[in-house]
Amino acid sequence: MSELARKSASSARHVEPERSGGGGGTAIDAEGLIKRFGKVTALDGLDLTVRTGEVHGFLGPNGAGKTTTIRILLGLMRNDGGSVRLLGGDPWADATKLHRRLAYVPGDVTFWPNLTGGEVIDLLGRLRGGLDPRRRDDLIERFELDPRKKSRTYSKGNRQKVALIAALASDVELLMLDEPTSGLDPLMEEVFREVILQEKSRGDRTVLLSSHILAEVEALCDRLTIIRDGRSVETGTLDDLRHLTRTTIRAELTGPVDSLAGIAGVHDLTSADGRVAFDVDADGLEPALRSLVTAGVRSLVSQPPSLEELFLRHYTRTGNGSPR
Amino acid sequence: MTGTGRLVRLILRRDRVVLPIWVLLLGLLPQLYLAGFQKLFTTDAERLEYAHVSGANAGFAGLYGPLSGDSLGELVVWRSGFVPVMIGLAALLTVIRHTRAEEEAGRSDLLRATVVGRWAQLAAALLVTMLSGLMIGLLVTGSMIGAGEPREGSIAFGALFTLSAWLFAGVAAIAAQLTTSSRGARMTAVLVLGISFVLRMGGDISAIGDGRLAWLSWLSPLGWAQKIIPYGEDNWAPAVIALLGTVMAVAVAGVLLARRDLGAGLLASRLGPAHAGAGLSSPLGLAWRLHRGLLLGWTAGFAALGVVFGGVGTSVVQLAATSNEVADTFSKIGGSGSITDAYFASTTGICALVVSLYAIQATLRMRDEEQNGHAELILGTAVGRTSWAAGHLLFALLGPAVAMAVQGAAAGLTFGDPGPVLGAALAQLPAIWVLGAVTVLLVGAVPRFAAVAWGTVAVSLLILLVGPLLEFPQWAMDVSPFTHVPQLPAASFSAVPEIVLILIAVLIAATGLAALRRRDIPA
Ligand SMILES: Nc1ncnc2c1ncn2[C@@H]1O[C@H](COP(=O)(O)OP(=O)(O)OP(=O)(O)O)[C@@H](O)[C@H]1O
Ligand SMILES: [Mg+2]
């Protein structure tokens, strides 16, 4: 975990009282999670803290371990190491009790081909301990779903809607959504965002949202955790993370510069024929500019830090795994 | 049909283990029988005596078909009479696995987006299956000629097996076009196989009795192949019928395929209710929705089977009345009971083996649900693993009981004396439950090998079919739970084996459930 992650995890800015009691305002608290599948180590000391009432983004490249983590949180799988608490309970031992208070939307969902969408929504809601019929009908309308169709005839996007409606129509404390918008068209994605923002405004619903869609995360999440190869690499608020991103600088210089490489925070430096290009962390920006000025600047282009750059950096950086 | 060649290679690669196993096993089974008989008879007189007695056994006629004469070749053909059913099963499973199942999994979309013709997938699946059928036939013909049996009869024998494979490859090709799910296609094709078997069985049993219903065999594809009567008549006319039947089935499948969209079936989907009924609010309610079709199908099938068995039972009585000598020898080999008791004991035994397929199928539904992600949905709600499993297991437990009871009652009522036949049917249940329990254990403890459960039926069937003839040692016979249940009404009831089997089943199932509670889902 980065330095920042540790900082922000300890700064308890959230004061919402927890409905469940215990845990002191954390809905999910996983530390050092380890999960192995035979020789494959899917989770390798993963940390994840989600506070009560927040929408928490959960990001990472394909195969990073997001789904595996969620399955452990649901008590479907058992961790080989580390500790995990969910809504103040043990997800493995207290699974059925805890599941009354949460709803889960799996990533790639299919239903029983002979049941209609409406039947699936009702069934899952009842098994969870009941759902609000008014809210159900409202959601069906907003997502423009025909609940009378048999599940086998639904497209991928429509299956995703069924799962979302089933989860959102229940009055639960915690929503666990594994790539919930994959397959939704842009219009429906917008509806999804509205609904989640509404949930958020209630203040007592916690959402764990695994996603690959940056815009979605930026629009919805209070805080987020980025994982790679089964380990957490960043945790924090969006602003915290933005601060972590680098500015890209390209400059034409009038004189030679040699002090740049020695500055902490300067990365990927290239220089030729009086042109330099590099990325620089927020901390290194000032000394780097100083040394450019000293050398004499003919022209300068800077690209502001973007979250996208941060994600791409985490997604592509070659580690011991196999990033894509 | 562009791309058929490449698809054939793909299928051969995917099935490189299974295909050779079933070709070799089924193709060499007649050799086992031949060896068994050669060991059994030291003189011709012994063989004639055996043929005489066996030919009049209605239970045998039902299971294997008629015995046409007393030569060694005819005895082997007769004793191999159940093998065409297994060949048909293997053929239809292979075809559906590479057609509808592929389409359902969405892999066909990928394939057809490349340069692969509309019919290529069906053609490739049929080609591989039919070639495998041909290999079985060649194995039979070659090995029988090698053992010194007449040339033409051996060719006819091979043709019997090959045509059985071809006919049911054709049946499966049609079934794969009708429904959108591979489960539905498989059930349809298996149903046709089951009906074929029952028709052939009814006709053949009747033929050795009063012959009133002997024509039933001619309605059955299995009957056509068997009417070739290798080593006896070597009659090629039924072979031509079987061949025509195959060609027609394939043609029909091709036309149906041309008329529908990829992924669609011919039976269109209608709209359903927008809200769930009150029943659909528990794991059990869901299990009822998932299992009721299967339960209904099995119950209806076994009711029909019972009626056929009961009706043919009357033929058996007449057989006994016309031939005292036959009745004598029969009750000698059939135990203490009468000729009809022995008959019902053996039909019930067969039914029990078939119903155990249902018990396994219902139990494996849990594994299906796990693999297609449905279990995760349910277990993500406030439903515990045990109650999730219990919903399915209730059907694995009671479904076979219903099917057996209906079969026994239908047979008994048609025959005119329901009590004993119904009792015989119910007495088999503990053995069926043991196989169901073994399936629970596999699903719980070694989910990746859950399909091995089907092997337990295969082993039990093998023990029933070849065990006595090859004089398996007692411990080998004892492996099958069906060895232990009393063969009512021919034998007398004894409670001890039943109770022991039930205890074993409970123990195994409980172990399986405990393992299920402890493992990852999905695993
Ligand atoms: N049941 C399993 N058996 C073996 N390996 C598994 C199993 N489930 C997951 N894995 C492996 O664990 C790793 C993490 O997988 P996981 O599905 O959690 O990734 P993910 O972050 O959800 O990826 P994606 O973004 O593609 O959904 C992968 O390397 C995957 O191959
Ligand atoms: Mg995933």
Automatic annotation (TrEMBL), chain A:
- Which SMART domains does the entry mention? AAA
Return the annotated region ranges for Disordered. Answer: 1-27
Q: Mainly resides where? A: membrane
Give the domain of life. Bacteria
GO MF entry, a single one: ATP binding
Could you list this entry's UniProt keywords, alphabetically sorted.
Antibiotic resistance, ATP-binding, Nucleotide-binding, Transport
Which GO biological-process labels does this protein carry? response to antibiotic
How this chain sits in the membrane, per its record, is: Peripheral membrane protein
A cellular component term from Gene Ontology for this protein is: plasma membrane
Q: Which InterPro entries does this chain map to? A: AAA+_ATPase, ABC_transporter-like_ATP-bd, ABC_transporter-like_CS, ABC_transporter_ATP-binding, P-loop_NTPase
Domain ABC transporter per the UniProt entry, residue ranges? 28-254
Coiled-coil region list: none
Location comes to: Cell membrane
Which PANTHER family does the annotation name? ABC TRANSPORTER ATP-BINDING PROTEIN (PTHR42711), ABC TRANSPORTER ATP-BINDING PROTEIN NATA (PTHR42711:SF5)
For this chain, the family text in UniProt reads: Belongs to the ABC transporter superfamily.
Q: What is this protein called?
A: Tetronasin ABC transporter ATP-binding protein
Its lineage opens with:
Bacteria, Bacillati, Actinomycetota, Actinomycetes, Micromonosporales
UniProtKB/TrEMBL annotation, chain B:
Tell me which domain of life the UniProt entry assigns to the organism this sequence originates from: Bacteria
Give the stretches traversing the membrane. Answer: 17-34, 76-96, 116-140, 155-176, 188-209, 236-258, 295-322, 342-360, 393-415, 421-442, 449-470, 490-516
* Secretion signal span: none
Q: Which UniProt keywords apply?
A: Membrane, Transmembrane, Transmembrane helix
The name this protein goes by in its record: Exporter of polyketide antibiotics
